[in-house]
Specification:
5 helices, mainly alpha, 66 residues
């Protein structure tokens, strides 16, 4: 499936938004890769999580990763 990438943080938020279609393990893997590459980019990720309305879904994964 073609996916447009605007920013890495937006892509991770979109993965969690569409986790039922692409699979939760894909979303978690995207989050792990994002956190590995962007140590201080969690503010942008949190912004896009709120925009995509997945902040409550993403919160436990972020807490577990820290």
């Amino acid at each position: 499936m073609p996916v447009r990438i605007y920013s890495a943080a937006k892509t991770v938020a979109d993965c969690f938004k569409y986790r039922n279609k692409i699979g939760a393990e894909v979303a978690v893997e995207a989050l792990k890769d994002y956190l590995k590459r962007n140590r201080c980019g969690s503010e942008a990720l949190w912004h896009f999580a709120k925009v995509c309305r997945v902040a409550n879904v993403l919160r436990p994964y972020l807490e577990a990763a820290e």
